[in-house]
Write a structure and sequence with these properties.
The complex is a heterodimer of chains A (225) and B (505). Chain A has 225 residues and is an alpha/beta fold. Chain A has eight helices and seven strands, in the order βαβααβααβαβββαα. Chain A starts with a strand and ends in a 34-residue tail after the last helix. Chain B folds into four domains: 131 residues, Alpha-helical ferredoxin (Fumarate Reductase Iron-sulfur Protein, Chain B, domain 2, Orthogonal Bundle); 139 residues, FAD/NAD(P)-binding domain (3-Layer(bba) Sandwich); 55 residues, Alpha-Beta Plaits; 134 residues, Rossmann fold (3-Layer(aba) Sandwich), CATH 3.40.50. Classes of the chains: A alpha/beta (225), B alpha/beta (505).
Amino acid sequence: MIIAERKPLNEILDMIQGVEGIKELLVVGCRECVTVCFAGGEKEVAEVASALRIALNKEGRKIEIEEEMTQRTCENEFVDAISEKIKGSDAVLSLACGVGVQTIVERLPEATVFPGVNTTFYGRPTEPGIWNEYCAGCGNCILHLTEGICPIARCSKNLLNGPCGGSQGGKCEVDPNIDCAWQLIYDRLKAKGKLRNLEEIMPPKDWSTASYGGVRRTSRQDAQK
Amino acid sequence: MQPPCEAACPAGVKIQDYISLIAQGRYLEAIAVIRERMPFPSVCGRLCYHPCEGECNRGLVDEPVAIMYLKRFAADYEFKMRPPLPAPPEVTKPERVAIIGAGLCGLTAAQDLAKMGYPVTLFEALPFPGGTLRWAMLPYRLPGQLVDWDVQHILALGVELKTDTTLGKDFSLGHLKAQGYKAIFIATGANKSRNSSRLSAEIIAEGALIFGTVWAVHAVGAGHQAAISIDRYLCGEPLAAADTIPIPVVRRDRAELQEKVLRGQIKLAARAEMPLWEPLETTLGFIEMESGYSEEVALREALRCLSCGAGAQCLEEKCSACLTCVRLCPYGAPTITLEGAVTMRLEQCLACGICAAECPAGAIFMKGYAVDEISRMIGEKAEAIKGDKPFIFLFTCSYHTTTREYKDFPENVIHINLPCIGRIRTIDLLKAFEHGAAGLGVVSCKGGECRYLKGDLRIKERVNYVKGMLKEIGFEESKIELFELDSLSDTEWLNIANLMLERVS
């Protein structure tokens, strides 16, 4: 799923206070990915709203802060469902991912929307409270060639043909908290008796399916109206 | 799901609710809950046959919770404090109701009907209300002034009482009808008088009259039933309500509970004995033999409740299936079904509140010890104290204390005592600041002593998280502090409160 993390509250405050005339702010969360990664669910919405009230009260600024949830902010219909609430506010602080923020803007062009979270990567919780990147969305999956471990997302250098010289004790030289993806691939290939696969040289990757080929779009005729 | 104690109570007392309020030191709220369904806690705190205790699941761990004695404790506490009597509810119904017999049954019906908005008159042959228990019980068994105190609560609702007025001698049913009473309830009860056996549509006779002497708790139950039927009759509905689907009862398994004991998830705790006065004192004074629980004993006893069915429930429409509850529950109550959905096994839940406090979707609520009630309490208490002087909150754990009466706290300390502070959410801590608190002291157990195994660890993380948030908005992190103390550390609370006050002023 999409992983995001809350922006520091001082940055959020700066965004809000940088715009004149905000009397009512609506904090909007999303019940999908950002709920699961503790960035923008109902709990975070309440906490961020409360913290902002505490901060603004200290500075003597009078901003009414309300709280709202959407089922999935990246859907037109779910944003439309709270459009009256949004129109009744001077600005929105969205705790949905970047897609959600832009959906609100598209549906309600008049709205002022601040991003309350940084959308970071596609990943998963490897243990409670820790999320790791697992997919880079490169648009051309090669997991069948690398024993189900993605060197694009999980090798810091996106290498396709084995580790770099910075792999030490199974860890990445960029950060010792990162497992070396190529060590993981090697270990799995070895366990399966398929080490010879490594002799096959992967050609340079075609990055046009990743964002380097321009803004991406997929379509499916039979799903269209 | 309902707890077995409540399912067993003939009067329908919300037993678990009042036990939990006692456990939080909220004794006057506890007695208010009791009075809703049991207007005679003095009687049923002493003379009940307590079918609730026979069904108590705690009996499968060690011994049942002493429900009756706890009821008496709450009643005795109220009698000692003498809070104001309830205000009379507004009379909203025109139909006058006559109740013949001011015993437990008649008085209970009078309480219920008065609360529904009916004008009620009680006719009592004796010179005083209270029925058999008031005149037949010797004071060493049931002190009469306690029954009188209970009766005052009912009369305070605007119920009119006519004593020394006997049916068949001083008035007849015809008189009552002529006077405009639209319903007459004969509740002459367990004593010898049987003046009327005539039943018509206007008249409902109570259980004791028809079936013979019953326990006090049954008389009260019959009073509730009568009030419902009279209301239905006056509203033009059939007397008997339509069949309702019975609420399932939380039944627990001895083997499963014993396993939890072995794993240390449930700690054994003996049932508190009822203390007795010295025999000489009882004999000379002709007073009760049983002296009633002290506050310390009552708190301890109330905390033995397993909170059956009062635990976590999931609002499916909000649940994101993030699995946080599955991962954090110390008891394995939330689980993943074969179909891949998250489900709460209520019978496994000990109502610690950790999952509800951690759920990022706000999808979990607690049937008992409602977590969102904490925020409400914080708001109310803060608004009541707000002034020029800085004030602080002190959050403490009921398991650490033997009393709720900390009269030594300075007035600008708001003290909130909860059965395990692991149920305090991050938002509750923030709400305290939002309502103007200058500082927060949070007292937790030292690692490993938490009754719920993980409450201390969770609150530690939440306090640290709030510290981080405070820092981000330019506040001192030291405005909130966690104090890890040994159990029964309430003697330290005042020092902690003073330390926090000093820090913020």
